[in-house]
Amino acid sequence: MLAERRHQLILRALRSGGPAAVTDLSEELGVSPATIRRDLVKLEEDGLLTRVHGGAVADDGDQPFAEVAEVRVAEKDAIAEHAAALVRDGQSVLLDIGTTAYRLARQLHGRRLTVITSNLVVYEELADDEGIELVLLGGMLRREYRSLVGFLTEDNLRQLHADWVFLGTSGVRPGGEVMDTTVVEVPVKRAMIKAGDTVVLLADQAKFPGTGMAKVCGPEDLDVVVTNAPVDPATRSSLEEAGVEVAVAGRVKA
After folding, report:
1. Which residues are within 8 A (CB) of 81 and not within 5 positions of it... i.e. 6 or more apart?
2. Which phi and psi (to 5°) does residue 142 adopt?
3. Lowest model confidence (mean pLDDT) among 53-67, 73-87, 98-112, 131-145
4. Is residue 218 scored above 90 in pLDDT?
5. Using omega within 30 degrees of 0 as the cis cutoff, is the peptide bond preceding 64 cis?
6. Taking a C-beta distance cutoff of 8 angstroms, is the pair 157, 151 a contact?
7. In which element (H, E) is residue 99 found?
8. Is 132 in contact with 108 (CB distance < 8 Å)?
9. What would the DSSP string read from start to end of 8-61?
10. How far is C-alpha 92 from the chain's CA centre?
11. In the chain, at which end, N or C, are there fewer CB atoms within 10 A of the end residue's CB?
């Protein structure tokens, strides 16, 4: 069995059944305890589980929106302010799901813009702002994370174009790959990338490397990364080699 498949089965077992012992996972997957231990080390490094004595417990990366919204607010606001300054009046902006995109929406009040989103919190934030033409994408509702997903969302995006795409992420690997914890969101993010002229990744310091087992895109699909702190040298090198501008919020570009 390939390692990637084992990892999927381990996470599925932990999320459905709770904490599990190495011996139980070994028997269930038909591999040695040593192999399971190596898998658990890798998955813990990726932020997908926590090893405990004799086994592991899953880390639920897909936290409800209300919980995530209260975390690192100052950092997200710094990123949002920098990102908002990139946009000129009269342009179109596509905002991803997530709490940093929501903080960016708060920075857009009073502007003359078109905002496209599948983020219900962004929609609620901007619905009464008469200067903003607001386009809400269709799709299936993810109640806990206040977003719309699925083939309807993706189909809507194929019919639209935006000057700017602002993406969120759960993690950025040293090779510059953008990751997500929720597989169902990945096709929507990819459709957003295709719908925009300039793709900007909003990623606070905790997202390097962050979490996520599903790859959204490589660094070649990004134009700018806006963060709140210096990026580790390996990741920064990977991004810059792909032609990505790395902007630290609050700092003047040299």
Report:
1. 107, 249
2. -100, 100
3. 53-67
4. yes
5. no
6. no
7. helix 99-106
8. yes
9. HHHHHHHHHH-SEEHHHHHHHHTS-HHHHHHHHHHHHHTTSEEEETTEEEE---
10. 21
11. C
**Per-residue pLDDT tens digits for 169-211:** 988 999 999 998 777 889 999 999 999 999 999 999 888 887 7
Q: Which of 200, 126, 138, 134 is nearest to 169 (CA)?
A: 200
Q: Cα torsion for 68, 186, 162, 76, to the nearest 10°?
A: 20
Which helix (H) or strand (E) covers residue 236, if one does?
helix 233-241
Letter string b/e over residues 189-216, b meaning 16 or more CB atoms within 10 A of that residue's CB: bbbbbebbeebbbbbbbbbbbbbbbbeb
Please, which residues bridge with residue 57 across strands? 50
| Contact indicator for 226, 199 with CB cutoff of 8 Å | no
Tokens of 140: 């299936």
| SS3 at position 130 | coil
Its pTM surpasses 0.70:
yes
At which residue do the structure tokens 């496209």 appear? 116
In tens, the pLDDT along 227-252 reads 998 899 999 999 999 999 999 987 64
Query: Percent of the chain scored above 70 by pLDDT?
Result: 91
Residue 219 has pLDDT above 50, yes or no: yes
pLDDT of residue 98: 84
